Amino acid sequence: MKPYFSASVLFAAALTLPACGSADVAAPPPAELPSAVASGTGATSILNAGVMTQIGAENAAAKFLFDPIYDDHFGSLEPLDDALIDKIVKGEAPYDAVTAVFVTHAHDDHFSAKYMTEMLAYQPDLKLVAPAQALDQLRKEAGWNFGLETQVRAITLRNGEQSRAFEIDGVEVVAMRSPHTGWPDRHSDVHNITYRVSAPTSDNQYMRVMHFGDADPARKHFTDHAEFLSSARTGLAIVPYWHFGTANPDKLFDETFNAETTVGMHVPANVPEWLAGSDRAYFTGEGQTADIPETD
Predict the structure, then answer these.
(1) pLDDT digits 0-9 by tens, 38-69
(2) Which CATH number do you get for residue 50?
(3) Smallest Cα–Cα separation from 218: which of 245, 237, 190, 187?
(4) Beta strand 171-177 with 206-211: parallel, antiparallel or unpaired?
(5) Which helix (H) or strand (E) holds 149?
(6) How far apart are CA 91 and CA 104, in angstroms?
(7) Domain of 249?
(8) pTM of the model
(9) Are the beta carbons of 237 and 257 closer than 8 angstroms?
(10) Residue 235 and residue 263: Cα distance in Å, rounded?
(11) Chain centroid to CA 124: how far?
């Protein structure tokens, strides 16, 4: 079933949240996500925009967290309870043996400088990849020190730029910056980073995942990224749910993002009626899963 709101109505509604885009909400029960995680690999929801991914060969998959811990739910998103915060910070199952954490941008519903400082201190082998704006916030925390800073890779890009590919424990990472939803009227100064993370599996196959943070879905923002995006097919694109409400979203995902499948995130606690009535896959609570198809 297609969303019955127009793209213009959905996109305008997405600009009303205090920090990040989200549509006005209704109160149907959350839709069930139909996908199941493969043995040892796949994507698993945390809450809000938080996602854990395991990619690579099944017996040697690397585990990554995207936007896992945040300070504010702005009254419409699922809040993190103390028990979940403690597990993420201390690296307790299922959030154990994490190779790296990726932060898309330094808004309070995606990032917590306080808890990230604690997390890096508890897990000295953990790596953090984040925009320089997030590092600026970390440096203001009372518990921050130079030793923790050695665990951080800060990303500084202009809109339309990608980083050079770099490796984290044999997994390739490329960061690209595009405007935050609401640009240019809102959040034009926010460094919103999309990460493409790629791990080889076997026989020249790869598992690739992209997390878009709060990227504005306008296709014009990805013109400068076209060569990069077309260079390799991504198995799973993790997109803010309002991308599903744009005009011809399948073309956006398949042709612009060059993604095989998608799953939505950043969904309000009360799922918008148009989304609940659609056939889109999206995350609404901790532990839901989505497969990451292998691609060339």
Answers:
(1) 457 999 999 999 999 999 987 789 999 999 99
(2) 3.60.15
(3) 245
(4) unpaired
(5) helix 146-149
(6) 20
(7) 7-33+43-285
(8) 0.89
(9) yes
(10) 11
(11) 23
